[in-house]
Amino acid sequence: MTSHPDVEALAFFAEALLEPAEERTVAHHIETCATCAATLDELTAVSGVLAGAPPVPPMPRDVADLLDRRIDEAVRERAAGSAAPPDAPVVPITRARGGGSRRGFNGMNLPRLMMVAAAGAVVLGGGGAVLNTVLSSQQQEEAGSASAPMMQDEDAEYGEPEAIQPYKAEAVSSGTEYTSEGLADQAAGVLAAPPAPDGDHSPAAAEECATVFAERQGVRVALVDDATFDGAPAMVLFAPAGDDTAEVYVVDPADCGGVLARETVTGP
Amino acid sequence: MDAVQELPDRELLTRHTQGDDQAFAVLVRRHRDRLWAVAVRMMGDPEEASDALQDAFLSAFRSADRFRGESQVTTWLHRIVVNACHDRLRRRKVRPATPTEDDTLDVLSNERLGRSGGTPDHASQTEARLDVHAALETLPLDQRMALTLVDMLGYRVEEAAQILDVASGTVKSRCARGRAKLLPSLAHLRNPRPPRDVTTGRGGADPS
Protein backbone atom coordinates (compact mmCIF):
# COMPACT_ATOMS: atom_id res chain seq x y z
CA MET A 1 0.00 0.00 0.00
CA THR A 2 1.50 3.28 -1.02
CA SER A 3 -0.83 5.51 0.96
CA HIS A 4 -2.44 5.38 4.37
CA PRO A 5 -5.70 3.55 4.67
CA ASP A 6 -8.44 6.00 5.54
CA VAL A 7 -9.87 6.14 9.03
CA GLU A 8 -12.92 4.16 8.06
CA ALA A 9 -10.79 1.37 6.66
CA LEU A 10 -8.92 1.30 9.94
CA ALA A 11 -12.20 1.18 11.84
CA PHE A 12 -13.32 -1.71 9.66
CA PHE A 13 -9.99 -3.37 10.22
CA ALA A 14 -10.49 -3.10 13.96
CA GLU A 15 -13.81 -4.89 13.60
CA ALA A 16 -12.31 -7.53 11.32
CA LEU A 17 -14.69 -6.49 8.57
CA LEU A 18 -12.21 -6.11 5.75
CA GLU A 19 -11.78 -8.57 2.93
CA PRO A 20 -8.82 -10.85 3.59
CA ALA A 21 -6.60 -9.23 0.99
CA GLU A 22 -7.26 -5.73 2.22
CA GLU A 23 -6.94 -6.86 5.78
CA ARG A 24 -3.46 -8.21 5.10
CA THR A 25 -2.47 -4.98 3.42
CA VAL A 26 -3.72 -2.85 6.28
CA ALA A 27 -2.16 -5.13 8.89
CA HIS A 28 1.13 -4.89 7.12
CA HIS A 29 0.84 -1.14 6.80
CA ILE A 30 0.13 -0.63 10.47
CA GLU A 31 3.22 -2.53 11.44
CA THR A 32 5.32 0.05 9.75
CA CYS A 33 3.23 3.19 10.12
CA ALA A 34 3.16 4.85 13.50
CA THR A 35 0.55 7.33 12.34
CA CYS A 36 -1.98 4.71 11.40
CA ALA A 37 -1.19 2.64 14.46
CA ALA A 38 -1.95 5.75 16.52
CA THR A 39 -5.18 6.32 14.63
CA LEU A 40 -6.18 2.77 15.40
CA ASP A 41 -5.57 3.46 19.08
CA GLU A 42 -7.65 6.58 18.83
CA LEU A 43 -10.54 4.62 17.40
CA THR A 44 -10.43 2.47 20.48
CA ALA A 45 -10.32 5.65 22.51
CA VAL A 46 -13.53 6.84 20.84
CA SER A 47 -15.28 3.76 22.14
CA GLY A 48 -13.75 4.47 25.51
CA VAL A 49 -15.03 8.03 25.52
CA LEU A 50 -18.53 6.83 24.67
CA ALA A 51 -18.42 4.12 27.31
CA GLY A 52 -17.07 6.61 29.84
CA ALA A 53 -20.04 8.92 29.72
CA PRO A 54 -21.45 9.40 33.20
CA PRO A 55 -24.13 6.86 34.06
CA VAL A 56 -27.76 7.70 33.37
CA PRO A 57 -29.48 8.73 36.61
CA PRO A 58 -32.38 6.48 37.57
CA MET A 59 -35.77 7.21 36.15
CA PRO A 60 -37.19 10.22 37.98
CA ARG A 61 -40.19 9.62 40.11
CA ASP A 62 -42.47 11.82 38.09
CA VAL A 63 -41.59 10.06 34.87
CA ALA A 64 -42.29 6.71 36.48
CA ASP A 65 -45.62 8.00 37.73
CA LEU A 66 -46.50 9.43 34.35
CA LEU A 67 -45.76 6.13 32.63
CA ASP A 68 -47.85 4.28 35.18
CA ARG A 69 -50.70 6.67 34.53
CA ARG A 70 -50.47 6.19 30.80
CA ILE A 71 -50.58 2.44 31.23
CA ASP A 72 -53.54 2.76 33.59
CA GLU A 73 -55.34 4.77 30.96
CA ALA A 74 -54.58 2.20 28.32
CA VAL A 75 -55.89 -0.54 30.60
CA ARG A 76 -59.09 1.40 31.17
CA GLU A 77 -59.54 2.09 27.50
CA ARG A 78 -59.15 -1.54 26.75
CA ALA A 79 -61.54 -2.52 29.50
CA ALA A 80 -64.07 -0.06 28.13
CA GLY A 81 -63.82 -2.03 24.94
CA SER A 82 -63.68 0.92 22.63
CA ALA A 83 -62.91 -0.54 19.28
CA ALA A 84 -60.74 2.33 18.20
CA PRO A 85 -59.49 4.18 21.25
CA PRO A 86 -58.33 7.67 20.50
CA ASP A 87 -54.59 7.69 20.33
CA ALA A 88 -53.89 10.11 23.14
CA PRO A 89 -51.02 12.45 22.55
CA VAL A 90 -47.84 12.03 24.48
CA VAL A 91 -47.78 14.09 27.64
CA PRO A 92 -44.55 16.03 27.82
CA ILE A 93 -43.01 15.50 31.17
CA THR A 94 -42.60 19.24 31.70
CA ARG A 95 -46.31 19.65 31.23
CA ALA A 96 -46.97 16.81 33.60
CA ARG A 97 -44.71 18.61 36.05
CA GLY A 98 -46.76 21.73 35.57
CA GLY A 99 -44.66 24.10 33.59
CA GLY A 100 -41.34 24.87 32.08
CA SER A 101 -40.31 25.07 28.51
CA ARG A 102 -39.12 22.07 26.67
CA ARG A 103 -35.51 22.38 25.88
CA GLY A 104 -34.87 22.16 22.21
CA PHE A 105 -38.42 21.76 21.15
CA ASN A 106 -39.55 25.35 21.02
CA GLY A 107 -43.02 24.34 22.01
CA MET A 108 -43.73 22.73 18.69
CA ASN A 109 -43.52 19.29 20.06
CA LEU A 110 -47.04 18.80 21.21
CA PRO A 111 -48.90 19.84 18.08
CA ARG A 112 -46.57 17.74 16.01
CA LEU A 113 -47.13 14.78 18.23
CA MET A 114 -50.84 15.22 18.17
CA MET A 115 -50.64 15.29 14.45
CA VAL A 116 -48.75 12.05 14.41
CA ALA A 117 -50.93 10.55 17.06
CA ALA A 118 -53.99 11.36 15.04
CA ALA A 119 -52.77 8.49 12.94
CA GLY A 120 -54.21 9.22 9.62
CA ALA A 121 -53.19 12.52 8.20
CA VAL A 122 -50.28 11.88 5.95
CA VAL A 123 -50.91 12.51 2.31
CA LEU A 124 -48.89 13.30 -0.69
CA GLY A 125 -49.56 12.74 -4.32
CA GLY A 126 -52.77 12.51 -6.23
CA GLY A 127 -55.38 9.83 -6.31
CA GLY A 128 -55.11 8.90 -9.93
CA ALA A 129 -51.36 8.98 -9.90
CA VAL A 130 -51.30 6.83 -6.81
CA LEU A 131 -53.54 4.27 -8.32
CA ASN A 132 -51.40 4.05 -11.37
CA THR A 133 -48.33 3.56 -9.30
CA VAL A 134 -49.88 0.74 -7.39
CA LEU A 135 -51.40 -1.01 -10.27
CA SER A 136 -48.76 -0.56 -12.85
CA SER A 137 -45.09 -1.19 -12.53
CA GLN A 138 -44.50 -0.12 -16.09
CA GLN A 139 -45.66 3.40 -15.49
CA GLN A 140 -48.42 3.17 -17.99
CA GLU A 141 -49.68 6.62 -18.55
CA GLU A 142 -53.38 6.04 -18.44
CA ALA A 143 -53.68 8.91 -16.09
CA GLY A 144 -56.20 8.31 -13.41
CA SER A 145 -57.77 5.32 -15.06
CA ALA A 146 -59.11 3.11 -12.37
CA SER A 147 -58.81 0.14 -14.67
CA ALA A 148 -55.13 0.42 -15.41
CA PRO A 149 -53.67 -3.07 -15.57
CA MET A 150 -51.84 -4.48 -12.62
CA MET A 151 -48.21 -5.21 -12.69
CA GLN A 152 -47.60 -8.55 -14.32
CA ASP A 153 -44.39 -10.05 -13.19
CA GLU A 154 -43.69 -12.69 -15.75
CA ASP A 155 -45.23 -11.75 -19.06
CA ALA A 156 -44.85 -8.03 -18.80
CA GLU A 157 -42.61 -6.14 -21.17
CA TYR A 158 -39.82 -4.87 -19.00
CA GLY A 159 -39.15 -1.95 -21.25
CA GLU A 160 -37.30 0.15 -18.75
CA PRO A 161 -35.60 -1.75 -15.99
CA GLU A 162 -34.84 1.46 -14.19
CA ALA A 163 -38.52 2.22 -13.99
CA ILE A 164 -38.77 -0.70 -11.61
CA GLN A 165 -35.75 -0.03 -9.49
CA PRO A 166 -35.81 3.40 -7.93
CA TYR A 167 -39.19 4.34 -6.73
CA LYS A 168 -40.77 5.93 -3.80
CA ALA A 169 -43.98 4.69 -2.40
CA GLU A 170 -46.84 7.12 -2.56
CA ALA A 171 -47.87 8.04 0.92
CA VAL A 172 -51.51 8.67 1.58
CA SER A 173 -53.84 8.80 4.47
CA SER A 174 -57.20 7.39 3.59
CA GLY A 175 -58.61 7.69 7.07
CA THR A 176 -59.57 4.05 6.85
CA GLU A 177 -59.83 2.24 10.14
CA TYR A 178 -58.65 -1.13 8.99
CA THR A 179 -59.67 -4.18 10.95
CA SER A 180 -58.58 -7.80 10.94
CA GLU A 181 -61.87 -9.02 9.52
CA GLY A 182 -62.44 -6.23 7.07
CA LEU A 183 -58.92 -5.88 5.75
CA ALA A 184 -59.55 -7.37 2.31
CA ASP A 185 -62.54 -5.16 1.55
CA GLN A 186 -61.05 -2.07 3.10
CA ALA A 187 -57.81 -2.46 1.21
CA ALA A 188 -59.63 -3.07 -2.05
CA GLY A 189 -61.66 0.04 -1.36
CA VAL A 190 -58.60 2.17 -0.85
CA LEU A 191 -57.05 0.70 -3.96
CA ALA A 192 -60.17 1.53 -5.95
CA ALA A 193 -60.39 5.07 -4.68
CA PRO A 194 -57.11 6.40 -3.42
CA PRO A 195 -57.56 9.48 -1.30
CA ALA A 196 -57.11 12.93 -2.67
CA PRO A 197 -53.96 14.80 -1.88
CA ASP A 198 -53.98 16.87 1.23
CA GLY A 199 -50.49 18.23 1.39
CA ASP A 200 -50.72 19.56 4.90
CA HIS A 201 -48.56 16.97 6.47
CA SER A 202 -45.19 15.46 5.99
CA PRO A 203 -45.39 11.97 4.59
CA ALA A 204 -41.81 11.27 5.58
CA ALA A 205 -42.67 8.71 8.23
CA ALA A 206 -44.97 6.77 5.94
CA GLU A 207 -42.53 6.89 3.07
CA GLU A 208 -39.67 5.80 5.21
CA CYS A 209 -41.73 3.00 6.63
CA ALA A 210 -42.45 1.82 3.11
CA THR A 211 -38.79 2.02 2.19
CA VAL A 212 -37.64 0.17 5.28
CA PHE A 213 -40.21 -2.52 4.78
CA ALA A 214 -39.48 -2.88 1.10
CA GLU A 215 -35.79 -3.31 1.81
CA ARG A 216 -36.31 -5.86 4.50
CA GLN A 217 -38.88 -7.90 2.69
CA GLY A 218 -37.57 -7.48 -0.79
CA VAL A 219 -40.88 -6.29 -2.14
CA ARG A 220 -41.85 -3.23 -4.05
CA VAL A 221 -44.21 -1.02 -2.12
CA ALA A 222 -46.15 1.33 -4.32
CA LEU A 223 -48.58 2.85 -1.89
CA VAL A 224 -48.51 3.35 1.83
CA ASP A 225 -51.56 4.33 3.80
CA ASP A 226 -50.92 5.92 7.17
CA ALA A 227 -53.96 4.64 9.01
CA THR A 228 -55.09 2.50 11.89
CA PHE A 229 -55.51 -1.23 12.25
CA ASP A 230 -57.69 -2.70 14.94
CA GLY A 231 -57.60 0.63 16.64
CA ALA A 232 -53.85 1.14 16.72
CA PRO A 233 -51.75 3.23 14.37
CA ALA A 234 -50.56 1.18 11.45
CA MET A 235 -49.00 1.54 8.06
CA VAL A 236 -50.81 -0.34 5.34
CA LEU A 237 -48.53 -1.11 2.44
CA PHE A 238 -49.62 -2.09 -1.05
CA ALA A 239 -47.25 -4.09 -3.20
CA PRO A 240 -48.13 -4.97 -6.79
CA ALA A 241 -48.15 -8.74 -7.14
CA GLY A 242 -49.14 -9.35 -10.72
CA ASP A 243 -52.32 -10.80 -12.17
CA ASP A 244 -54.35 -7.77 -11.18
CA THR A 245 -53.55 -8.23 -7.56
CA ALA A 246 -51.69 -6.41 -4.86
CA GLU A 247 -50.27 -7.79 -1.67
CA VAL A 248 -51.37 -5.76 1.31
CA TYR A 249 -49.20 -5.72 4.41
CA VAL A 250 -50.19 -4.13 7.67
CA VAL A 251 -47.16 -3.17 9.72
CA ASP A 252 -46.56 -1.55 13.05
CA PRO A 253 -45.36 2.01 12.43
CA ALA A 254 -43.02 1.75 15.40
CA ASP A 255 -41.19 -1.02 13.70
CA CYS A 256 -42.00 -1.23 10.00
CA GLY A 257 -40.67 -4.75 10.03
CA GLY A 258 -43.18 -7.13 11.51
CA VAL A 259 -46.27 -7.86 9.49
CA LEU A 260 -49.39 -7.59 11.60
CA ALA A 261 -51.67 -8.81 8.89
CA ARG A 262 -51.50 -9.67 5.26
CA GLU A 263 -54.01 -9.90 2.49
CA THR A 264 -54.12 -10.23 -1.25
CA VAL A 265 -56.56 -7.95 -2.98
CA THR A 266 -57.69 -7.68 -6.54
CA GLY A 267 -57.71 -4.38 -8.30
CA PRO A 268 -60.95 -2.66 -9.22
CA MET B 1 -53.27 -11.21 44.84
CA ASP B 2 -51.26 -14.00 43.39
CA ALA B 3 -47.59 -13.45 42.92
CA VAL B 4 -47.78 -11.60 39.64
CA GLN B 5 -44.46 -10.07 40.48
CA GLU B 6 -42.84 -13.49 40.28
CA LEU B 7 -44.10 -14.47 36.86
CA PRO B 8 -41.67 -14.69 33.97
CA ASP B 9 -41.83 -11.99 31.29
CA ARG B 10 -43.45 -14.18 28.73
CA GLU B 11 -46.21 -15.24 31.08
CA LEU B 12 -46.89 -11.63 31.97
CA LEU B 13 -47.20 -10.75 28.32
CA THR B 14 -49.55 -13.65 27.72
CA ARG B 15 -51.69 -12.67 30.65
CA HIS B 16 -51.79 -9.13 29.39
CA THR B 17 -53.07 -10.26 26.01
CA GLN B 18 -55.68 -12.35 27.78
CA GLY B 19 -57.03 -9.29 29.50
CA ASP B 20 -55.11 -9.23 32.77
CA ASP B 21 -55.06 -5.62 33.95
CA GLN B 22 -51.93 -5.84 36.06
CA ALA B 23 -49.55 -7.87 33.98
CA PHE B 24 -48.34 -5.20 31.62
CA ALA B 25 -47.57 -2.70 34.34
CA VAL B 26 -45.61 -5.33 36.22
CA LEU B 27 -43.66 -6.22 33.11
CA VAL B 28 -42.84 -2.63 32.33
CA ARG B 29 -41.85 -1.78 35.87
CA ARG B 30 -39.50 -4.71 35.88
CA HIS B 31 -37.55 -3.40 32.92
CA ARG B 32 -38.16 0.28 32.89
CA ASP B 33 -34.87 1.39 34.39
CA ARG B 34 -32.88 -0.28 31.68
CA LEU B 35 -35.24 0.98 29.03
CA TRP B 36 -35.03 4.43 30.53
CA ALA B 37 -31.27 4.37 30.23
CA VAL B 38 -31.59 3.30 26.61
CA ALA B 39 -34.05 6.09 25.86
CA VAL B 40 -31.98 8.74 27.60
CA ARG B 41 -28.86 7.70 25.75
CA MET B 42 -30.67 7.58 22.44
CA MET B 43 -32.44 10.91 22.84
CA GLY B 44 -29.72 12.67 24.82
CA ASP B 45 -32.35 14.37 26.88
CA PRO B 46 -34.55 13.10 29.72
CA GLU B 47 -37.65 14.93 28.59
CA GLU B 48 -37.51 13.49 25.14
CA ALA B 49 -36.67 10.12 26.62
CA SER B 50 -39.86 10.35 28.63
CA ASP B 51 -41.84 11.07 25.47
CA ALA B 52 -40.24 8.19 23.64
CA LEU B 53 -40.95 5.77 26.48
CA GLN B 54 -44.60 6.79 26.47
CA ASP B 55 -44.76 6.07 22.77
CA ALA B 56 -43.00 2.79 23.24
CA PHE B 57 -44.98 1.49 26.18
CA LEU B 58 -48.30 2.30 24.59
CA SER B 59 -47.17 0.67 21.38
CA ALA B 60 -46.04 -2.41 23.29
CA PHE B 61 -49.31 -2.44 25.21
CA ARG B 62 -51.31 -2.56 22.02
CA SER B 63 -49.13 -4.87 20.00
CA ALA B 64 -48.39 -7.42 22.69
CA ASP B 65 -50.63 -9.98 21.03
CA ARG B 66 -48.40 -9.82 18.00
CA PHE B 67 -45.33 -10.80 19.94
CA ARG B 68 -44.47 -14.10 18.38
CA GLY B 69 -42.01 -15.34 20.90
CA GLU B 70 -39.09 -15.46 18.51
CA SER B 71 -37.02 -13.31 20.79
CA GLN B 72 -36.80 -12.56 24.48
CA VAL B 73 -39.49 -10.27 25.76
CA THR B 74 -36.75 -7.87 26.86
CA THR B 75 -35.33 -7.80 23.34
CA TRP B 76 -38.78 -7.09 21.99
CA LEU B 77 -39.27 -4.27 24.50
CA HIS B 78 -35.87 -2.84 23.65
CA ARG B 79 -36.75 -2.95 20.00
CA ILE B 80 -39.94 -1.05 20.54
CA VAL B 81 -38.18 1.58 22.65
CA VAL B 82 -35.38 1.94 20.15
CA ASN B 83 -37.86 2.27 17.31
CA ALA B 84 -39.81 4.91 19.20
CA CYS B 85 -36.56 6.83 19.74
CA HIS B 86 -35.68 6.40 16.11
CA ASP B 87 -39.00 7.87 15.02
CA ARG B 88 -38.52 10.88 17.25
CA LEU B 89 -34.93 11.42 16.23
CA ARG B 90 -35.91 11.23 12.63
CA ARG B 91 -38.62 13.79 13.09
CA ARG B 92 -36.22 15.96 15.01
CA LYS B 93 -33.85 15.82 12.08
CA VAL B 94 -36.29 17.62 9.88
CA ARG B 95 -36.97 20.22 12.52
CA PRO B 96 -35.98 23.56 11.07
CA ALA B 97 -34.13 24.70 14.17
CA THR B 98 -31.70 21.83 14.03
CA PRO B 99 -28.22 23.25 13.85
CA THR B 100 -26.09 22.10 11.01
CA GLU B 101 -23.12 19.94 11.62
CA ASP B 102 -20.79 22.88 11.24
CA ASP B 103 -22.71 24.96 13.72
CA THR B 104 -22.56 22.17 16.23
CA LEU B 105 -18.87 21.74 15.84
CA ASP B 106 -18.31 25.48 16.07
CA VAL B 107 -20.23 25.63 19.29
CA LEU B 108 -18.20 22.76 20.57
CA SER B 109 -14.86 24.29 19.84
CA ASN B 110 -15.96 27.65 21.21
CA GLU B 111 -17.08 26.09 24.43
CA ARG B 112 -13.84 24.27 24.70
CA LEU B 113 -11.78 27.36 24.08
CA GLY B 114 -13.85 29.43 26.44
CA ARG B 115 -13.20 27.09 29.30
CA SER B 116 -9.65 26.21 28.52
CA GLY B 117 -8.39 27.95 31.63
CA GLY B 118 -10.00 25.43 33.92
CA THR B 119 -8.56 22.24 35.26
CA PRO B 120 -10.00 18.86 34.41
CA ASP B 121 -12.85 18.92 36.87
CA HIS B 122 -16.58 18.95 36.92
CA ALA B 123 -16.80 21.57 34.23
CA SER B 124 -14.76 19.54 31.83
CA GLN B 125 -16.89 16.51 32.57
CA THR B 126 -19.96 18.43 31.61
CA GLU B 127 -18.13 19.64 28.60
CA ALA B 128 -17.20 16.12 27.66
CA ARG B 129 -20.79 15.02 27.97
CA LEU B 130 -21.91 17.86 25.75
CA ASP B 131 -19.21 16.97 23.29
CA VAL B 132 -20.22 13.35 23.17
CA HIS B 133 -23.86 14.12 22.70
CA ALA B 134 -23.32 16.81 20.10
CA ALA B 135 -20.89 14.64 18.23
CA LEU B 136 -23.36 11.76 18.17
CA GLU B 137 -25.97 14.12 16.79
CA THR B 138 -23.86 14.60 13.70
CA LEU B 139 -23.97 10.91 12.81
CA PRO B 140 -26.52 9.23 10.58
CA LEU B 141 -29.18 7.68 12.78
CA ASP B 142 -28.25 4.11 12.01
CA GLN B 143 -24.69 4.64 13.11
CA ARG B 144 -25.67 6.65 16.10
CA MET B 145 -28.07 4.02 17.35
CA ALA B 146 -25.63 1.18 16.86
CA LEU B 147 -22.88 3.06 18.66
CA THR B 148 -25.19 4.09 21.45
CA LEU B 149 -26.18 0.51 22.10
CA VAL B 150 -22.76 -1.05 21.73
CA ASP B 151 -20.25 1.52 22.89
CA MET B 152 -22.26 3.67 25.27
CA LEU B 153 -24.62 1.13 26.77
CA GLY B 154 -22.40 -1.90 26.49
CA TYR B 155 -24.75 -4.25 24.68
CA ARG B 156 -23.05 -7.09 22.88
CA VAL B 157 -23.05 -6.80 19.11
CA GLU B 158 -25.39 -9.79 18.88
CA GLU B 159 -27.82 -8.21 21.31
CA ALA B 160 -27.73 -4.92 19.47
CA ALA B 161 -28.31 -6.78 16.22
CA GLN B 162 -31.44 -8.41 17.62
CA ILE B 163 -32.69 -5.15 19.03
CA LEU B 164 -32.10 -3.30 15.78
CA ASP B 165 -33.30 -6.26 13.74
CA VAL B 166 -30.26 -6.34 11.51
CA ALA B 167 -27.32 -8.69 11.05
CA SER B 168 -24.40 -8.56 13.47
CA GLY B 169 -22.10 -7.56 10.65
CA THR B 170 -24.33 -4.59 9.96
CA VAL B 171 -24.06 -3.48 13.56
CA LYS B 172 -20.29 -3.80 13.38
CA SER B 173 -19.98 -1.81 10.21
CA ARG B 174 -22.32 0.90 11.47
CA CYS B 175 -20.23 1.15 14.62
CA ALA B 176 -17.02 1.23 12.64
CA ARG B 177 -18.28 4.01 10.38
CA GLY B 178 -19.58 5.93 13.34
CA ARG B 179 -16.31 5.69 15.25
CA ALA B 180 -14.39 6.83 12.21
CA LYS B 181 -16.66 9.85 11.91
CA LEU B 182 -16.46 10.65 15.60
CA LEU B 183 -12.72 10.39 15.76
CA PRO B 184 -11.91 14.02 14.93
CA SER B 185 -14.35 15.42 17.47
CA LEU B 186 -13.88 12.95 20.29
CA ALA B 187 -10.41 11.53 20.28
CA HIS B 188 -9.05 14.58 22.07
CA LEU B 189 -11.11 13.78 25.13
CA ARG B 190 -8.96 10.79 25.78
CA ASN B 191 -5.92 11.65 23.76
CA PRO B 192 -5.10 15.31 24.16
CA ARG B 193 -2.50 15.35 21.45
CA PRO B 194 -3.68 13.99 18.16
CA PRO B 195 -0.80 12.47 16.28
CA ARG B 196 0.48 14.61 13.51
CA ASP B 197 0.45 13.11 10.14
CA VAL B 198 4.10 13.51 9.39
CA THR B 199 4.14 11.17 6.46
CA THR B 200 1.17 12.35 4.45
CA GLY B 201 0.76 10.39 1.31
CA ARG B 202 3.62 8.11 1.94
CA GLY B 203 3.83 4.68 3.29
CA GLY B 204 4.68 5.05 6.85
CA ALA B 205 7.34 5.97 9.28
CA ASP B 206 10.31 3.91 10.13
CA PRO B 207 9.33 1.08 12.45
CA SER B 208 11.93 2.22 14.94
Short description:
The complex is a heterodimer of chains A (268) and B (208). Chain A has 268 residues and is α/β, with parallel strands linked by helices. Chain A has helices spanning 7-14, 20-32, 34-51, 61-80, 93-97, 109-117, 127-135, 161-164, 183-192, 204-217, and strands at 170-172, 177-178, 223-229, 232-242, 245-251, 259-266.
Distance between the termini of chain A: 62 Å
Strand content of chain A: 5-15%
The stretches of 5 or more residues of chain B where confidence is low (pLDDT under 50) are 96-121, 191-208
Helical segment count of chain B: 9
CATH class of the largest domain in chain B: Mainly Alpha
Topology, please?
The complex is a heterodimer of chains A (268) and B (208).
Chain A: H1 7-14, H2 20-32, H3 34-51, H4 61-80, H5 93-97, H6 109-117, H7 127-135, H8 161-164, E1 170-172, E2 177-178, H9 183-192, H10 204-217, E3 223-229, E4 232-242, E5 245-251, E6 259-266
Parallel strand pairs in A: 1-3, 2-3
Antiparallel strand pairs in A: 3-4, 4-5, 5-6
Chain B: H1 9-17, H2 23-43, H3 46-63, H4 73-93, H5 101-114, H6 122-137, H7 141-152, H8 157-164, H9 168-190
Helix pairs in contact in B: 1-2, 2-3, 2-4, 3-4, 4-8, 5-6, 6-9, 7-9, 8-9
Main traits of this protein?
heterodimer, A: 268 residues, alpha/beta, 10 helices, 6 strands, B: 208 residues, mainly alpha, Rna Polymerase Sigma Factor, Chain: A, Arc Repressor Mutant, subunit A, 2 domains, 9 helices
